[in-house]
Amino acid sequence: MRCTLGVDVGTSSTKGVLVAEDGRIVASATRAHDVDRPHTGWVEMDARIWWDEFTDIARELIGALRQAQGSEAAEISAVGVSGMGPCVLLADANDEPVRPAILYGVDTRSGAQIARMTDELGTSEITRVGGSTLTSQAGGAKIAWIADEEPDAWARAERFFMPASWLARHLTGAYVLDHQSASQTSPLYDIENESWYEPWWQRYAGSIEQPRLTWAGEIAGYVTAEAAEATGIPAGTPVITGTIDAWTEAVSVGAHEIGDLMLMYGTTMFLVATGEETLRTPSMWTTAGAFPGTRNLAGGLSTSGALTAWLKDLTGSDYPDLLADAEKSGPGANGLLVLPYFAGERTPIQDPDARGVIAGLTLEHTRGDLYRAALEATALGVRHNVETMRAAGADIRRIVAVGGGTQGQLWLQVVSDVTGLVQEVPATTIGASYGAAFLAASAIADPGAAPVITDWNPITQTITPNADLREFYDTLFDRYVRLYEGSKDVVHELAAEQRAHEQRGARRE
């Protein structure tokens, strides 16, 4: 049996799948991990975990395949890689990390660098070159933070990686980065010319060797003898460059065509709208697409699954009980309204000092009301993003849902009811690892014989909004927007106090 191996490094776990030539998942494996939050606003991870988990998963899946099929019949024909991002991992000349990897927009430490770079370069010039203003999502600002704040680490840094490119490096020795990931290393990438922007690279990252730019589905290289020994994957096996998980998830469900919107339910919520035109708006992220000739307008909530997991742990409940209670609570959660900004917020408000707010609490409210309000909060955040995208000119014709959260029918229905959007759900929602396997299969296919994702993964469910709730949720959305505007001054003061409290604690230690 010929299979492709797809592995994705996510925020809370690394997932791998073996996929047969017809798209059937033969075996899967997962390794859970945690991020580190050493200070308020910092979210980072030891990148050595990424390769360790990849090797564990590869050996487990290959073992399962051989046990089922016999060693002679088992064949890994190509490897696909994917990972969370945009992350910043700097490594030395021996590819040893000089510090933990700084994660994507949920890490908000680079505020001073964003302000300085914006002042030095100008907002209009930054958006002209890279498409987006600088926010906590900007990889270039995180690189500048290391240069400013950790000179010893910076002095040793010679190469720049994200999770997918880190795996490709270990597997093949190739030093590459895909265009989509590079376009989120703002302001170091020129989106119209699809190249590194030399003047700003030299200014802010000059001591770092530039990774070669390729497209996500292109072959980066071939498994080395050393990597084969570590993973069990045969030497010489092709490995694609890969890209950031949200874009690979879009591939996994066929939501990467012009007019598509991919809605990813995970630890965070992510949205990717695909078009041909470079749309620029300060509220969202403008990026290169996963494929040549495409552009994306993207957005992300800083919490979604992370918020529901927090409530689960806080209440000591399990998800089935919470979902049953939330179902009983009903639309509006008996008068509760939540702002889901428990880790700051990314788009469209771009406010790292935003904080969670629970409004309307009484002694009569239950855990079911809280959980229902949390689900509605993420849905209201999705609506805020979609309306902002459309105002910027995005032509959204089709919405496809993906990710672990799609397993819960209530959450899907709440999002459709709040946004008024029809969602299509495919048969397989395992996510980015599946998309990586598809890209790998496509990379090695004969001309004219490439696999088709809708054959691999057809749509099996359609979620339709309840028209009777439209007026109710229009009113709730208005309150949601006004609640943020009305509370943000106080919330910002609290965020400043939280930082000051942490600094006092650090000095005492």
From TrEMBL:
One of its GO terms (biological process) is D-xylose metabolic process. This is Sugar kinase. Belongs to the FGGY kinase family. One of its GO terms (molecular function) is kinase activity. Residues 4-247 form the Carbohydrate kinase FGGY N-terminal domain. Pfam families: FGGY_C (PF02782), FGGY_N (PF00370). Keywords: Carbohydrate metabolism, Kinase, Transferase, Xylose metabolism. Transmembrane segments: none annotated. Residues 262-443 form the Carbohydrate kinase FGGY C-terminal domain. It comes from the Bacteria. InterPro entries: ATPase_NBD, Carb_kinase_FGGY, Carb_kinase_FGGY_CS, FGGY_C, FGGY_Carb_Kinase, FGGY_N.
